[in-house]
């Protein structure tokens, strides 16, 4: 005998959707579910400064040629690259904890940005992006007529 089918408007489905939303928030907080307390590579810091959003990414050991930066949809930032493993000719590895290989990390920015006004600098293994707010995201003073 089969169990009865639940109607689409059953409270169970609402609870399941709520649970899924909570899990998605948890995975977003911890870098896509890499592990509790472990963030995805590269780690991001994001803050707003005047008419810009600043994004800082830790990318030790990478050169500019190893990085690709994209702004799509007005507020989606994607960082792609490859961290190459170190080579040792005669050494024997005892521990290798740093991850290597290709990576892609996407981030939804807090407001639309102008993709033509992005400043990217790499210094001491830290990538700093300064992205200007798009005109549509800037506050406008509205004149009041009497």
Q: What keywords describe this structure?
A:
3-stranded antiparallel β-sheet; 7 strands; 13% helix
Molecular structure report:
The chain is mainly beta and 146 residues long. The protein has a domain at 43-85 and 101-137: Immunoglobulin-like (Sandwich), CATH 2.60.40.790. Helix content is 13%, strand content 37%. The chain is built from one helix and seven strands. It has one helix at residues 11-29; strands spanning 44-49, 52-58, 67-72, 76-83, 101-108, 113-123, 126-133. Strands 1-2-7-6 form a four-stranded antiparallel beta sheet, with no helix packed on it. A three-stranded antiparallel beta sheet has the order 3-4-5, with no helix packed on it. The longest helix has 19 residues, at 11-29. The chain is flat. The termini are far apart.
In short:
The chain is mainly β. Helices cover 13% and strands 37% of the residues. It starts with 10 loop residues before the first helix and ends in a 13-residue tail after the last strand.
- Give me the secondary-structure category: mainly beta
Strand order of the largest sheet: 1-2-7-6
Shape: flat
CATH class of one domain: Mainly Beta
Q: What is the typical, i.e. mean, pLDDT?
A: 81
The gyration radius over C-alpha positions equals: 22 Å
- Percent range for β-strand residues: 35-45%
CA(first)-CA(last) distance: 75 Å
Number of helices: 1
* Count of individual beta strands: 7
CATH topology value of one domain: Immunoglobulin-like
Low-confidence stretches: 32-38
Give the biggest sheet. Answer: 4 strands, antiparallel
Q: Please tell me the CATH architecture of one domain by its name.
A: Sandwich
Q: Give the fraction of residues assigned to helices.
A: 10-25%
């Amino acid at each position: 005998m089969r169990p009865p089918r639940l109607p689409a408007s059953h409270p169970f489905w609402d609870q399941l959707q709520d649970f899924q939303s909570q899990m998605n928030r948890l995975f977003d907080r911890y870098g896509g579910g890499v592990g509790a307390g472990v963030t995805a590579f590269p780690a991001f810091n994001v803050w707003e400064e005047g008419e810009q959003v600043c994004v800082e990414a830790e990318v030790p050991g990478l050169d500019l040629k190893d990085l690709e930066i994209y702004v799509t949809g007005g507020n989606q930032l994607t960082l792609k690259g490859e961290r190459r493993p170190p080579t040792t000719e005669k050494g024997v590895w005892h521990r290798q904890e740093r991850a290597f290989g290709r990576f892609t990390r996407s981030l939804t920015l807090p407001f639309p940005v102008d993709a033509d006004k992005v400043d990217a600098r790499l210094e001491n293994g830290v990538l700093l992006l300064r992205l200007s707010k798009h005109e549509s995201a800037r506050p406008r003073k509205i004149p009041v007529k009497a």
